[in-house]
Amino acid sequence: MQIIVGALLIIVAIFLLLVILVGVFYAIDIFLDLPYVATKRHKIETIIKLAQIKKGETVVDLGSGDGRLLFAAAEKGAQARGYELNPFLIGLTLIHTKLKGLGNQIEIEKKNMWKADLKIADVIFVYSLKKSIKKFEDFVYKNATPGTRIVVNLHSFPDKKPIKVKDGIYLYKV
Ligand SMILES: C[S@@+](CC[C@H](N)C(=O)[O-])C[C@H]1O[C@@H](n2cnc3c(N)ncnc32)[C@H](O)[C@@H]1O
């Protein structure tokens, strides 16, 4: 009987811990400009196609989530840098980077993306909600080097004309 009660207590404790962790994960989102929404596989393919990444180019993802775009860019030979504030997602990216052996190509900065160094980027990935798309447009056009390709997921920049559009992904050149 004591063993059953002990086992039940452990199960309840693990369940509560999971609930707390999931709660903290989503609570972090409340304080950020963008919630965590991962880009779907078919969209990643379109993003990578539109970006036309060449070996050795530098790619920056503004809000890199679990790092999936960084990995896709690294597979094309890029140096990929992600800016992310959610510690769970940073941890996940670091684990996958190690497992995939991409430590020399992927860098993850626990830093506010509005302080990102865009001068180093040949390609920038943006995933924005409607409310922050103008802020991204101004930020990128003010800080990136002329010629930088910007690949925007979900909403188009309000005041710039894309070079290409496919499956709700927009390609711009600064
Ligand atoms: C819509 S998700 C995109 C994730 C990833 N780029 C993808 O395409 O799968 C936005 C990410 O930005 C992060 N984020 C939101 N505000 C941020 C900020 N100010 N600085 C850095 N990261 C931020 C969130 O934690 C979230 O992971």
Automatic annotation (TrEMBL):
<dbReference type="Pfam" id="PF13847">
    <property type="entry name" value="Methyltransf_31"/>
</dbReference>
<keyword id="KW-0808">Transferase</keyword>
<dbReference type="InterPro" id="IPR029063">
    <property type="entry name" value="SAM-dependent_MTases_sf"/>
</dbReference>
<keyword id="KW-0949">S-adenosyl-L-methionine</keyword>
<feature type="domain" description="Methyltransferase">
    <location>
        <begin position="53"/>
        <end position="156"/>
    </location>
</feature>
<protein>
    <recommendedName>
        <fullName>Methyltransferase domain-containing protein</fullName>
    </recommendedName>
</protein>
<dbReference type="InterPro" id="IPR025714">
    <property type="entry name" value="Methyltranfer_dom"/>
</dbReference>
<dbReference type="InterPro" id="IPR026170">
    <property type="entry name" value="FAM173A/B"/>
</dbReference>
<dbReference type="GO" id="GO:0032259">
    <property type="term" value="P:methylation"/>
</dbReference>
<keyword id="KW-0489">Methyltransferase</keyword>
<dbReference type="GO" id="GO:0016279">
    <property type="term" value="F:protein-lysine N-methyltransferase activity"/>
</dbReference>
